[in-house]
Amino acid sequence: MGMVIGLLENLVFIYTILLIIYIFMSWFPGARESSFGSFLGRICEPYLDMFRRIIPPLGMIDISPIVAIFVLRYAMVGLKALFELLGLY
Fold first, then answer.
1. Could you tell me where the DSSP H helices lie in the chain?
2. Would you say 60 and 51 are in contact if contact means Cβ atoms under 8 Å apart?
3. Per the UniProt record, which residue ranges are transmembrane (predicted)?
C-alpha cells in the first residue's frame, strides 16, 4: 500500500508543478494560446475554476491558484495521515 501513497504523492507533486507553470504562463503574452498552454488549460482550469467561483480576485491579483495549491497539498497530507491511521501505510 505504500507504493500507492508514493504514486499519489508523485502525481500530486507533478500536478502542482503543472499548476505553477500554468500560473506563470499568464505573465507571458500568447503563452496560454500555444498548444502546450491549451493542454495545460484543459488539465488545470477545471480544478482552478472551483476556487475562482469562491475567491474573487483582489484587483488585478488572483489568489485562487495559491489557495488551490495549498488545498491540494493539504489533501495529500490528510490522505497520507488517513492511510497511516488505517494501518495501510
1. 2-25, 35-54, 64-85
2. no
3. 12-30
